[in-house]
Amino acid sequence: MIGGILVLAAAGQAVMLMDGFSRLTANAEPSELMAGCTDVPEAVALAETLRERSLRLDGYMKELDRKKAEINFAEKQLTEKLVELRKVKQQLAQRDAGQRQSVTEDISRLIAVYDQMKPEQAAMVLSNLPPDFAAQILVRVQPETGARIMASVEPGQAAVLTSYMGAVRAAAK
């Protein structure tokens, strides 16, 4: 008897395999899934819940795609701005380097003038300049010239200039 049942089961399996695997796959449409189940309230409620979830998931996916597009657009704009800012930064650096070069050349000419002046005349002019600026000049002139100029400056003013010159040298290091 058990053998007969096993034979029948095996025969059923063979028939299914002969029909192909199409019988094993579910290709039903949602309305076909509900066919014959409309009288089961739990099945109807479950089908409605699943449909609502599917609609919400579709909405979430669309929202995610929209946000992704926004992020990509913002990222592109930020990248463009970053490239633009780097160019501006480079231009500013070049301009600043040019201005520093120009200022350095101007100071060099000014120092050359003070190197050529008589120490008494240079001392009179430097005494009337702001002490920090006068110290900048004195630090850069030839040491012998600077010493002669400082000797011609009033002692109180010379002390002030000396302290500023020390600050200039400390800042340069």
Comma- or semicolon-separated keywords:
single chain, 173 residues
Structure commentary:
The radius of gyration is 46 Å and the shape is rod-shaped. The chain is 84% helix and 0% strand. It has helices at 2-19, 30-34, 41-116, 119-127, 131-140, 143-152, 155-172.
Question: How widely separated are the two ends?
Answer: 107 Å
Total helices: the number is 7
* SSE string: HHHHHHH
Fraction of residues in helices? over 70%
Biggest sheet record: none
- Computed over alpha carbons, the radius of gyration is 46 Å
How big a fraction of the residues is strand? under 5%
The total count of strands amounts to 0
Please tell me the overall pLDDT.
81
Q: List unreliable stretches of 5+ residues.
A: 20-29
Mass-distribution shape: rod-shaped
Question: Which structural class is indicated by helix and strand composition?
Answer: mainly alpha
